[in-house]
Design goal:
The complex is a heterodimer of chains A (114) and B (196). Chain A has 114 residues and is mainly alpha-helical. Chain A contains 7 helices and no strands. Chain A is rod-shaped. The termini of chain A are far apart. Chain B has 196 residues and is mainly α. In chain B, 66% of the residues lie in helices and 0% in strands. Chain B is globular, with a radius of gyration of 18 Å. Chain B starts with 8 loop residues before the first helix and ends in a 13-residue tail after the last helix. The chains are: A mainly alpha (114), B mainly alpha (196). Chains A and B meet through α1 and α2 of A and α2, α3, α5 and α8 of B.
Chain lengths: 114, 196
């Protein structure tokens, strides 16, 4: 009984960590701390998945920039535009005519650009 | 005996990984949680506050050194740390004078009637520390780990690198030794019943 009470009292009053010792331990820790390894460019861009997305976005941007804006048929069927199938000068003309009709119905003028 | 609740070992391992990755905040958390335990263990083992602080700092230094190579699946952080602390304490004890015999344990201050409860508790702790110093080092380590640090027998066996039966034997003999050393001080320590 006495022993259990003594042990309980010892457990209840753990030795506090003196501030000087705490500081010394923390200084040791900082002195010994491994430096964080610099991240490679591959890690920065997110590895394979990040690089895949970046390449896709880049190609899409180039493609968007390269396509003539007036050739709106391209937007409907970009694969046909790239492969050269299903797209002709007439189809572009048809598209222009269709846009002109829609613009007239809405009271717009394509020539004015509004 | 009631087990003492300890913070998750997984949390310690995670903090070790964070520290190894260059996170200073993880080091502060490890110091805050493990520092007092290491110090208390060293103090009970050595019976000397200054030496205990040296040992505690050295044990934590070894923790920082091993952090980059820490294998969470190999051992618990606390088990490893108690083992290192125990070994450092044993090294120190072997370099200094032999333990005082049980009958030379200092008498605690006489708590006069009306003395504050805090003083009585301090006297009890001092008597326990003195009695622990009179035990053989292996018994002392086992008793401290079991009854003060609240570790399980398997964990103590791992720390002391002995079998679980040996742990039971050491703690039992150590407890009997303490009881014998403290029996004569029972009244002075404010214990009135006959049970030791």
């Amino acid at each position: 009984m006495m022993m259990e009470e003594l042990f309980a009292a010892a457990r209840a009053q753990p030795a506090p960590l003196p501030q000087a010792l705490r500081d010394a331990m923390e200084q040791d820790a900082l002195a010994m701390m491994p430096r964080a390894k610099p991240r490679s460019l591959w890690q920065v861009i997110g590895g394979m998945w990040g690089a895949s997305g970046l390449v896709t976005a880049t190609l899409a941007g180039i493609w968007i920039g390269a396509v003539p804006m007036e050739n709106t048929a391209v937007w409907a069927d970009p694969v046909a535009y790239i492969s050269g199938t299903g797209l002709s000068a007439e189809s572009g003309a048809d598209e222009d005519l269709a846009w002109a009709e829609i613009s007239d119905d809405l009271g717009w003028s394509l020539d004015e650009g509004v | 005996m009631q087990e003492i609740t300890q913070p998750s070992e997984d949390a310690h391992a995670a903090l070790m990984a964070r520290y190894a990755g260059g996170d200073a905040a993880a080091a502060r958390l490890l110091v805050a949680d493990l520092g007092p335990r290491v110090l208390a263990h060293a103090r009970y083992m050595l019976g000397d506050a200054a030496e205990a602080e040296d040992v505690a700092q050295e044990a934590m230094l070894r923790l920082w050194k091993i952090a980059p190579d820490w294998d969470a699946g190999r051992a618990k952080v606390t088990t490893w740390l108690y083992q290192v602390t125990g070994n450092l304490c044993v090294d120190r004890m072997r370099k200094r004078r032999p333990s005082a015999p049980l009958d030379q344990v200092a008498e605690p201050p006489d708590p006069a009637p009306g003395v504050e409860a805090e003083l009585l508790t301090a006297a009890r702790n001092a008597a326990l520390e003195d009695a622990l110093q009179a035990l053989p080092e292996r018994q002392r380590q086992a008793v401290v780990l079991r009854h003060i640090e609240g570790l399980s027998n398997p964990q103590i066996a791992q720390i002391m690198e002995i079998g679980a039966e040996a742990v039971e034997s050491l703690t039992a003999r150590g407890k009997r030794g303490l009881a014998a050393a403290l029996a004569s001080q029972k009244d002075a320590l404010g214990f009135e019943d006959d049970a030791v």
